[in-house]
Amino acid sequence: MKTCLVLEGGGLRGIYTAGVLDEMLDDKIKVDAIISVSMGSLIGINYLSKQKGRALRYNLKYCNDKRFMGFHSLITTGNIANKEFDYYEIPDKLDPFDYKEFKKSKTKFYCTVSNLDTGKAEYIEITDCKSQVEYLRAGSSMPGVSKIVKIDGNKYLDGGITDSIPIKKAQELGYDKIIVVTTRPIEYRKKKSKMKTVQTIYRNYSNFKKAIASRNKRYNETVEEIIKLEKDKKIFVIRPSKAVKISRVEKNKDKIQAQYNLGVEDYRNKKNELKKYLEK
Known about the structure:
Elements: E1 3-7, H1 15-26, E2 33-37, H2 39-48, H3 54-62, H4 71-77, H5 83-94, H6 99-104, E3 108-115, E4 120-125, H7 133-139, E5 149-151, E6 154-158, H8 167-172, E7 177-181, H9 196-201, H10 206-213, H11 215-231, E8 235-238, H12 253-279
Parallel strand pairs: 1-2, 1-7, 2-3, 7-8
Antiparallel strand pairs: 3-4, 3-6, 5-6
Helix pairs in contact: 1-2, 1-12
C-alpha cells in the first residue's frame, strides 16, 4: 500500500492545513509522499521536519510585520510575500527550519509550480529545502503581486493556477491510499476570474493566460471528482466544516488562530475514520 497526502493552497487559509498536520504528527500518521500546492507546500515541509506548531507560530508572530507580507513588501520589493524575509531570514535565523530532519525523511515531497511558457503544472521533488527554496517560493508566488521566479531558464509562478488540488497526479504516481486536505468547505466553487489586469501583465505568455482564464472550470471539476472519489471510499478528505472569513494575506491574529483551531477540530472529529481508511 502506497499512501499520499495532497495539500491545497490558499494563502493564509492554509493555516487550516497546519492544524490538521500538527494533529497528524501527534498521531504519527506516516505517508509515502506529499504533493503540495502553494501555501500547502510551505505548511507541508514542517510535517517532514517534525516541527509541530512552527507554521502557526511564525505566521502569528510576523503577520503584522511590514517585512513579512502585504502592501509594503509589494511596493518595496515587487513581491507581496517578502523574498528575503520570508524565505531566508525566518527559516534560517528567526524561526529556524530543521533542514536536516527534512532531508532524513523517506517521504517524497512534491511542490507544484506553474510554468509560464507552457501553462502547465510541474511537480518538483524537493529533497533539500535549503538548496531548493526558490521552487517553494515560485510555487507560492501569486500572479499579479509577485515577480516571476526564474530557475534554470524556466519561468514559474503559483502552482495553484494550473493544478489547485493535484489528486490526478497522486493517482498517476500510483498511490492507492490518498488523503486530501482542502482549505475550502465542500460547497465552495470557484467563480470565473475577472483578473483583467493580470491577463494584461502576462500578455506575452498565452498559455499561462489561458490557464488563468480556465482555472475556475478545472478547479470545480476537480472538486466534483474529489466528492465522487470520497463517496466511493477511494480517497479520504479532510476539509473545513465551516467557512472562516480569512484573506490570503490575513493580518488578524484571531482569524488566523481560528482557522488553525478549525483544522485541529476537524481532524479530531475524523481521525478514527482516517485510521480505519489507512488500515484497510
